Amino acid sequence: MSKNFDYERFYDLIAPVYGVAMRLIPVWRHYTEVVLSWLPPSGAVLEIGPGPGLLLTKLVERYSLAVGLDLSSGMLRQAQRRLRCAHLSVRLVRAEATHLPFPAGSFDGIVITFTFSAIPNGLAAMEEMARVLRAGGRLTLVDAGMPGDGNPLGTGLARLWEKFGDFMRDEAALMREAGLEVIECREFGAFNSIRLVVGRQP
Ligand SMILES: C[S@@+](CC[C@H](N)C(=O)[O-])C[C@H]1O[C@@H](n2cnc3c(N)ncnc32)[C@H](O)[C@@H]1O
User: Fold this and answer.
1) Smallest Cα–Cα separation from 89: which of 119, 113, 60, 52?
2) Whose CA, among 99, 177, 178, 186, lies 20 to 30 Å from 128?
3) Is the dihedral of CA 129, 134, 135, 136 positive or negative?
4) How many CA atoms lie within 13 A of 135 on its CB side?
5) Which pTM value belongs to this model?
6) pLDDT along the chain (202 residues), means of 10
7) Are 131 and 125 in contact (CB under 8 A)?
């Protein structure tokens, strides 16, 4: 995939099957739900790239205001359906992570799981997330990454993600560049190929 790849069309196409596929990978839920214990206990939260809304359902149950923002209208339809079936209502917004349609300081928490690596301009997205976080607010990110110890299986997995167009990055460095304080950065999951990074708006 190149920077000109049509991500919106791609995610629209896979939207009907993505949620089913993720439910068939039992560890996926564990990987994404790691963010929950790092979020503030109350307030307004934004999930960027909620896809079919598996994690968003939890956020809606927990927070007085939870907003899901995604590039793909197909994914947003899946999320809407899932939340409606659970008798939950949510604000869903179709937009691009590099241009968040919210005023500065709108959210106490931001969640982004397995989405940051699909955004070509990572620093622009990080700066936007930092902008819409309130002072003291937290950005919690989970994504595939290159394992720090260079273990061959984890490195192989990361190289595979790169072939599918994902960008393996130093998310902690980008968070700092966007003005956030990094309060957690750790590898976990299969061969340390998954990364949790948590930033705080000073
Ligand atoms: C791989 S899915 C991840 C879904 C879910 N967060 C998870 O952990 O399973 C990536 C999601 O991010 C969305 N996405 C990708 N690039 C985006 C962008 N630049 N702005 C907003 N959403 C984006 C896609 O439409 C898709 O719903």
Assistant:
1) 60
2) 186
3) negative
4) 1
5) 0.96
6) 76 92 87 96 97 96 96 97 93 98 98 96 97 98 95 94 88 98 96 96 98
7) no
Q: 156 φ, ψ to 5°? A: -60, -40
Helix (H) or strand (E) holding 77: helix 73-85
End-to-end CA distance of the chain: give it in Å, rounded.
36
Please answer whether residues 34 and 56 qualify as being in contact, where contact means their C-beta atoms are separated by less than 8 angstroms. Answer: no
| H or E element at residue 66 | strand 65-70
- Find out whether the beta carbon of 35 lies less than 6 Å from any atom of ligand 1: no
Domain boundaries, the chain: 7-200
4 Cβ contact partners less than 8 Å away, ≥ 6 residues apart: none
- Nearest protein Cα to ligand 1, atom 13: 49
Would the CB of 7 count as within 6 Å of ligand 1? yes
Q: Give the chain's length.
A: 202
Of 163, 121, 119, give the one whose Cα is nearest residue 143.
Answer: 119
Instruction: Assess whether the C-beta atom of 57 lies below 6 angstroms from ligand 1.
Output: no
User: What is 7-200's CATH topology?
Assistant: Rossmann fold (3.40.50)
